[in-house]
Amino acid sequence: MPNVTLNTVVSINKQDEFGFGTQIRKSPYFDATVRWGAKAFSVYNHMYIPRDFGDPEQNFWNLVNGAILCDVAAERQVEITGPDAAQFMQLMTPRDLSSMAVGQCKYILMTNIDGGILNDPILLKLAENHFWISLADSDILLWAQGLAVNSGLDVMISEPDVSPLQLQGPRSGDVMHALFGDSIKEMRYYWLNEMEINGIPLIVSRTGWSSELGYELYLRDGSRGDELWETIMTAGQPFGLQPGHTSTIRRVEGGMLSYHADADMKTNPFELGLDRLVSLEMPADFIGKAALQRIQTQGVSRKQVGLWIDAAPLKRPNTTFWPIERNGETVGKVTSAVYSPRLEQNIALAMVSIENAELGTELEVLTASGPARAVVVEKPFFDPKKQLAVSA
Hints:
Blueprint: E1 5-6, H1 30-35, E2 40-44, E3 47-52, H2 56-65, E4 68-71, E5 77-81, H3 85-91, E6 105-107, E7 110-111, E8 117-119, E9 122-127, E10 130-134, H4 140-149, E11 156-158, E12 163-168, H5 172-180, E13 192-197, E14 200-205, E15 214-219, H6 225-236, E16 242-244, H7 248-253, H8 289-298, E17 302-310, E18 322-326, E19 329-340, E20 345-353, E21 362-367, E22 370-377, H9 387-391
Parallel strand pairs: 1-2, 4-16
Antiparallel strand pairs: 2-3, 4-12, 5-10, 5-11, 6-9, 7-8, 9-10, 12-15, 13-14, 14-15, 17-20, 17-22, 18-19, 18-21, 19-20, 21-22
């Protein structure tokens, strides 16, 4: 077994037990990822998640030129069922779900009473009153169960035995065809099907956290995680499939949010330019509606922007929020920064005061290596209309 680290702190060998203790759960794919070269893990939704299979730049190229398989079982599911499940689900999001069809997926926001973002999950509709909320890193199971207590709605809320994998990259379609045959070619972007591999029960969706062609395979029997991982890797070998982890480089290129970094409960959708996910005119009520109406009327005082940072190539993503200054005054912070080898540029997502959000504005970022010039630019930085994911 290779040496493995938790946030590069805790190492193991064949004799030592690995982990923080039983309070941090291991995914059904944990042992397989270690066998296949996982070298470091982080914690996400109280679970281990692989963060290192070697050089992160090579992981990026594996993703954008071929295909990678990622253990994202830490994207836990909150299951909403019962006669009032659809009404309750609408209560939790400002996005209008009235036309959402069975078998469809939607990217949604979940807001609190102040209009702050609690999570930005993918919502899956399995039946008329059966939903999965595929979570970013926050405790929405507890939030949903708390809301249900005094809602007067007949719902059941639980965490099912469901653990997703992400198969992402331009060759992912070839791997899926080898696994499922011609039927996979009919799957549309942001739709799902119930499927199986060798009797392993799955929900498969054409979604993923990469802005590339990709699929998520939601395992519905945790006892078969090792078998599923090995089956996919075997099918993918002719197409160059590699084990990997979600790429920070690619997600920043695509302008994709990382919860707790680029958004939190003090961030509202309008600051992120996500107005399209807020339907204030719909008849249905939702938590935070009054606050978001007020914010829309008053306008925002800050805005998320893209930045080019003029400095030596960053060796790793930022691990603290870097202050942004203009004329010696702090005007914002860098939330996610990385060097893109494809763009040959340091790129970043940042939150700045509205007066400094105009394209072309020159700013100064106080990076870990010292001050650096930055310029406000369009985001996403690459394939802004997601043609790679939509049309492949």
